[in-house]
Amino acid sequence: MSEILTSLTDGARQRLLERITDVPDYPQQGVLFKDITPLLADPEAFGTVVDALTGLCGRHGATKVVGLEARGFVLAAPVALRAGLGFVPVRKAGKLPRPTLAQEYALEYGTATMEVHADDLGAGDRVLVVDDVLATGGTAEASVELVRRSGAEVAGVAVLLELGFLDGRSRLEPALRGAALEALIAL
Asked: Of 17, 19, 80, 139, which is least surrounded by CB within 10 A?
């Protein structure tokens, strides 16, 4: 299942979008960075996002929430807490202290490696992967692979903002193998 989340009204979506700032040429020339910090600074907007993403945990039967470094942490941790689920961080290589599973991936401005503790997820876990932005899909695809390699099931991927013009959805959908991909806002 792949969709734009319908539980938000058009007005709520517009209010969230108004609190996302465009930063041209960051982190490098030619990249238009979507800064969500103004949205996070607004408790009503932030609460709307957390409520909507928390609803997806129940809808998809999640037992754990994975957040992707770094801005995904800010969204995923309160979602997990509000849903009464465990939070598992997926981090850049070398940031986790115990044995990890690693996955290299390409993003719109380079390559990187993500890691998860090898024992934080396992058989019986249904994982909702939460991130701020779906751009080219590389980060989300790598996280889905990490979840599966850990023995857990991917319940879905949920993002605040999908940049449709970068076609990340097309790249990610085969890796989902039928799991949900939902965005609160799509551009």
From this structure: 17
